[in-house]
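Most newcomers find our protein records easier to grasp once they have seen one. The structure tokens are whole numbers drawn from a learned vocabulary of backbone shapes. The record below serves as our worked example for the rest of this section.
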Amino acid sequence: MNSSNNVSSFAQRHADYISRLLIASLLTLMLVSINMTVSYASELDYKLVAEPVGKGTYVFIGSTKYFSRKNGGNIANAAYIVTNGGVIVIDTGSSYLYGKQMREYIESTTGLSIIKVFNTHHHPDHFLGNQAFKDVSIASLQEIVNTITTQGEALNNNLYLLVGDWMKETEAYPPTEVVTPGIITIGGHKIEIIALDGHTDSDMTIYDHTTGVLFAGDLIFHNRTPAVANANIKNWLESISKLQKLDYKYLVAGHGPVTTDERAIIQTREYLSWLHDTLQSALDSGLDVSEAIQLTVPDRFKELDILHEEYKRGVLQLYPGMEQAYFE
């Protein structure tokens, strides 16, 4: 009897021990999970801070590097204008998360509602935050709307491969309003919509006559090598000449710091002119793409970030089409 009781008591103590061990293990796993979640959440924070540009205008300056998991795709500039009727947003960043954090920052710092969003062109680092603004009119030119509608999800998927979990829940959300070139008044601001092209088939720039701020989109890069994936360099150079004639006080490039002079325009124009002439000369010399990609980039462009990487990408993107046209 005593032996049976001892065995039963031992079994009960053992069961209690196993139970306590399981509970402790579960609690440990929960704590680890919570810590991982907190850490993960803190890692997926763009830490957005807008820089003031003139009166009532602010810019989120993106990295001048290429897409990476480190920067979460935050490589482009996005901006907003505080008007007497609410806030105008220009471009929404590279992900739904970016758009959400951008909107939270704007609303918490201004105390105002967002009344209009503009997309300057169809590249993913400029429109994939649109989801966060579904309750607001998102406007762009007709061709930009069309391209985002047809290509947006493919661009979204490609960006997910480059930056990973920053893109969670992101879907391509096209603009909901088509605007035409000309001047419109929003919240007391005289806003001019300018239709150009060259960086893509359709590029929209926005000139705020009220503040003198020109939002040039990716027609202008500053201290960063221009990306030419969808470029027509001849048209791009013509568009730059048109922008240079505007009497702006501040120029917000699509990438790189804000400027008050022509420095960014000159940088962009000189690099594109050199690239076009260099590739044309390579064609005339009978070089193939593997030879063209090895050509030396002049030291005068060394101030441009990711110069050699973007030059090589540019050759791979432009040269095959140039070869085809050359021999037709």
About this structure: Residues 94 and 125 are 4 Å apart (CA to CA). The chain is about 45% helix and 20% strand.
